[in-house]
Structures are given as structure tokens and as C-alpha cells.
Amino acid sequence: MNIAQRMASIFPTADAIPEKFRLTPIHQTDYLISGELKTWDGPFGEVWSPICCMEQEVPVPIKIGSHPRMNQETCQAALDAAVKAYDHGQGLWPTLPVSERIRHVEEFTWRMKEKRTEVVNLLMWEIGKSLADSEKEFDRTVDYIVDTIDALKELDRVASRFTIQSGILGQIRRAPLGVVLCMGPYNYPLNETFTTLIPALIMGNTVVFKPAKLGILLWGPLLEAFQKAFPPGVVNTVYGEGRTVVGPLMAGGQIDCLAFIGSSKVADTLKHQHPNPHRLRCVLGLDAKNAAIILPDADMEAAVSECVLGALSFNGQRCTALKILFVHASVADEFLKRLVDAVNKLPFGMPWENGVKITPLPVRDKPKQIAEWLEDARLRGANVLNECGGTAQGTYCHPAVVYPITPDMQLYSEEQFGPVIPVIPFTDISEPVRYVVQSNYGQQVSIFGRQSDQIARLVDPLVNQVCRVNINSQCQRGPDSFPFTGRKDSAEGTLSVSDALRVFSIRTLVAAKNTQANRELLTTVIRERQSSFLNTDFIF
């Protein structure tokens, strides 16, 4: 069976869906405000799966549930609850000892783990992520929480001592920023939301979080865990259209920190809606157009393998995906042949199928948009090299290898965020370097080659353009202990297990002249445990 024939039968009939993965539509009515699970009785938004069912040889989208479309009044109540719980830094949560905040996060973690099966199944149904990748996202999120707890313990141990400088006694610790608005992306709706939500919480901030536009229902199983693990008002949820929900929240000026992962255009809009932008802290993960540079001496097998993974993992729907490939003209033919062969061999199908790599797309108009990009490229002289590349069947779009890309094509500069691999030949190494320099984005780049002097000559200028240079490997976020950020329009602030703790807090100190009276005063405060901030406890 060729690729076209397999595509024609990619979607199952309803009775062919494995029983263990079947999903009963979910009418999500609960939302969390001030420690209460409330029931929404207003309008609802529909949730459609990228998975279709075949009916009379036609793929028909499946409605898998609904979610609240909250009004401004209810969303303001969620923000008010967070503001009240923070209480200008005087609330229970921001004044709790670090060890107590850790205990609450640990309780949430074991409650979250009880919901693994439900959340993983919803990841598959809501965004079309494969079973293996959905499980990996859940497990990696749990690991991230555990690592964050360990990092905070270490950070607090370092801060548990007093410093004496120039006749001044001081203890320096990190204090929370205030109320944080967390908004994650649809491609990693669980993991990337938690990479901001958890460090914001554990550092003593209170949070309002809005699920991504896709991947909404998977939060339902976790609401009770939030409710039971955290004090009232520490975690609050809002649902609805970003334009009608988030704008008014920002405009009120009560948000102290914006944690957003999405497009730079939306981030700019949100920042400008705040009446005091100079007071607003921002932690932003934004757009990227990461390039790979394949040098003449590159190991072709390794380069192709990493480029396929980098460009097409989760259908290319990753900010860290390789979104454009520069290959030296002398090895372009060999590289393209190997690349096309590798793409043609990728298993595609439903998310629960064993070993599947390419799945249906959750953004419903994405196949149409991809078709427009490919048509633009064809009109300007490029070709789709692989069988059925760019061909759509319902919500499924087969990956496309497009060559040769030129600067006048949309795929040259636009971030495709989908299963398209644009390839450009080059003869002078200055060409791909110039592309990276002139790009509006500066997240990562990958270099494939064997000559140390050539690699070194590329590394030195590129580290001043992007924030991670990968040698003979794809672009990626992990491991989570490494810094994750970008230059230009790609990011603001740095995320990693340890960096995130710092970005959601600020260094604060208590100081006094090093006199006998002050030493005795501070000793009494510490010995009698009169302060959460001033202490020398060592957290094991």
C-alpha cells in the first residue's frame, strides 16, 4: 500500500477506535476561584478533536466536549481572589516558610500523578499528540516539579546564612513578585504551562492561569488537586477567548508578572494593555525560526536523522523545531535523497497507534495554510520532493520537503509551525550566517559538521545571535536544567529549573549594623522562630 492509499484510510470508523482509548464527551463546567470549585452556567465553547471518524468514506470531525466561556466579571473575581491571597505580600502564601510551600507543591504532585491516565488520553484527543509523546509530556512535567523542589531547597540552603560586609549584617533571600498571570501554549499545554506555573507558585506568588486555546479539557482532572493542595486564592482558573478575557485583566493593572508562551504579537498586545508596563515583569517564550546548517563534511546519516527529528517531532509544532535547513550545494543531492527517504518511512496515523510519528493537526485551518505556503513556493520555483508531501486528508497533512527555497518565498521567513521542511542550498558559509543575523528571531541553531576549526568559526559569531548552538544535534529545550531563552523576538526572561525560580522572584535582604545589640536582636528572632524570612534553617 503506497502513501496515498494509506492516507485515504488514516482515520478509523467509530467502532474501530480501541476501547481503552475511547473518549466520552466531557462537558467541563468547573472552574477554581478562591479555593472553591464553582459551576459555570453561562455560555460554553466547543472542543473539537483533530481525530476524525470515517463516515461514508468522509473524515468527520469529532466533538469531544465543551468548556466555559467566562465573562469579564467572573474573570475579575478570579484575579481579585489572587490579589486578596497575596495581600500585598502579607497573605498566608507569600509569608509561608519555604519548607511549607514545598510541602503544598509535593501534595499537589502526588495528587496529579493519580490523574495520569486521564490527562494522557486527553492530550491525544485534544491536540493529536502520540501516546508515547503524551506520556512523556506528563512524566517530564512531574520530573520538572520534583527537580524544581530540589532546586529551591538548594537555593534556600545557600541563603540560610548571614553575610557580614563593611560592618553590615545581612541575610539575602528571594521574595515573590506578586500576582502572576500564566498562559501556556497548545503544543505543550501541560508541560510548558507548568514550567511557569510551578516556579511562580513555589516562590510565593499567587496565580491566575488560563489554559491554551487547545488542550483545555485536560485541566479538568487537575482542578481538584489544585483545590486540595493549595490555600484559597493561591491558584485560580479562567476560561474563554483571550481577547475578551485576558485584555481586561491586564488593563486593570493588578497583574504583577506575565508568564506567556505564544506569539510575539500577542505578547506585545498584552504588555501594552497594562497601565504600568515598567512595573510589569514578563517571562515570555515566543516565536522562532531555528535553522540547521549542514556543512560539506557532515555525517549525512546522523545529520538527516537529527533533522527529521528536529523538523517533524510532533508534526513540527514546537518552537524549538528546525524550521529551515541550509545544506551545502556540494552535498545537497545526497542529503535530499536521504532526507526524502527518511520522511517517506515515517509511520503516520492515529495517536494511539504503536510507533506513530506523524498525526492529525489540532489547528483546523493549518492544512489550508500549508497548502498556500507550498503553492507560493511552487510559483517561485521550488518543488515538493517527497511523495504526497503537503497532501491533506481531513485534519491530517502529510509532511513536505520543499526545495530549493529562496528569500522571496513565504517559507523563507515565516514560522510554519507544522510538518514542512524548507531546504536552501548554499555555497558560501556567510549565507546561512547572514540569515541567522538578519532573522527577527534568535532562539537556537544547529550545526552539522566534523572539522573542529570550521565549527569553532561558526560557534563564535552565532552565540551572539541565538541562545543555544547545537552541534550535530537537533534544536531542543532539554535537559530542563539548561537555560531556555532567546534573543530578539524569541523570548524575554530565562527558564530552566533554577532560572525559573529566580525569574519569578526578586533578591531581597534584611540588613543591620554589626553591633552587639543588633546581633542579639537577630539571634532572638532566629532562635525563637519569629520570622519566616529571617532564619538559618537547612531544608533537607
Do you know the CATH topology of the largest domain?
Aldehyde Dehydrogenase, Chain A, domain 1
CATH class type of the largest domain: Alpha Beta
Q: What is the terminal-to-terminal distance?
A: 59 Å
CATH architecture of the largest domain: 3-Layer(aba) Sandwich
Please tally the helical runs, counting DSSP H or I stretches of 4 or more residues. 18
Sheet of most strands: 7 strands, mixed
Give start-end ranges of low-pLDDT stretches: none
Number of spatially distinct domains:
2
Helix-strand makeup class: alpha/beta
Strand content: 15-25%
Shape, principal axes of CA atoms: globular
In percent, how helical is the residue content?
25-40%
Mean pLDDT: 96
Protein architecture, described:
- With 540 residues, the protein is of the alpha/beta class.
- The protein has 2 domains: 31-38 and 70-285, Aldehyde Dehydrogenase, Chain A, domain 1, CATH 3.40.605; 290-485, Aldehyde Dehydrogenase, Chain A, domain 2 (3-Layer(aba) Sandwich).
- Helices cover 38% and strands 22% of the residues.
- It has a 7-stranded mixed beta sheet with strand order 15-18-19-14-13-21-22, with helices on both faces. The protein has a 6-stranded mixed beta sheet with strand order 10-9-8-11-12-24, sandwiched between helices. Strands 1-5-4 form a 3-stranded mixed beta sheet.
- Strand 4 (44-55) and strand 5 (58-68) form a beta hairpin.
- Helix 4 (98-113) runs antiparallel to helix 8 and helix 6 (131-159) runs parallel beside helix 7 (191-202).
- The mean pLDDT is 96.
